[in-house]
Amino acid sequence: MSRGNYRTTIFPDHDHAERYLFFLNRVSARRQWVVVDWCLMPNHYHLLIQLTDDGLSDGMRELNGCYSRWSNQMHQLTGTGHLVRNRFKSLLVDDDPYVLQLLRYLPNNPVRAELAPTAEDWKWSGFRATAGLEYPRAFHRPSAALAYFDRDPKRAQDLYTRHVTLGADLNGPVPWSDQKGGDAWLDR
């Protein structure tokens, strides 16, 4: 995940979000990332990626750099500092229960932030494609998420949707709440 510098907005409108997703598509194809899930928020984003090599740092530097340069150019900003804060934050996800938590957390992030009434209502995440409500974007591999639920694609989509919907409890724990500082670094 990456956050806007000083928690500023990095996706102010549709065009910015689309341009970021364009760069994500390009970088994920070049790096052979499997984007299991994703969510864009106004001032940060989350990606759940399966790596095929050790190219995470280089890929994230390319992704954030391309988008930042484009955004600064669009706003005619020079010498104003970085668009995203510091280096990206990454967590190793090495067990199925943690993946399931993330598959619930990411689509509910806009719900928790009161940006959308349900995960289905938020256009800027992988939920709608994974739930079978629309076609996935070129970089997104919903089948990687659905494999955690069932071999039958339709049943997997139903179970996934139920999993996410049941996780919309605004008072429920977030995946990182046991780490130092709790979930304070997450904007809601």
Account of the protein in words:
By secondary structure, the protein is mainly alpha-helical. It has two domains: 2-74, 2-Layer Sandwich (Alpha-Beta Plaits), CATH 3.30.70; 96-166, no CATH class. It contains six helices and three strands, in the order E-H-E-E-H-H-H-H-H. It has a three-stranded antiparallel β-sheet. Helix 1 packs antiparallel against helix 2 (56-74) and helix 3 crosses helix 6. The longest helix is centred in the middle third of the chain and has 19 residues, at 56-74. The two termini are 14 Å apart. Residues 173-188 have low confidence and may be disordered.
SSE arrangement:
Elements: E1 2-3, H1 14-31, E2 34-40, E3 44-50, H2 56-74, H3 96-112, H4 127-130, H5 142-146, H6 153-166
Antiparallel strand pairs: 1-3, 2-3
Helix pairs in contact: 1-2, 3-6
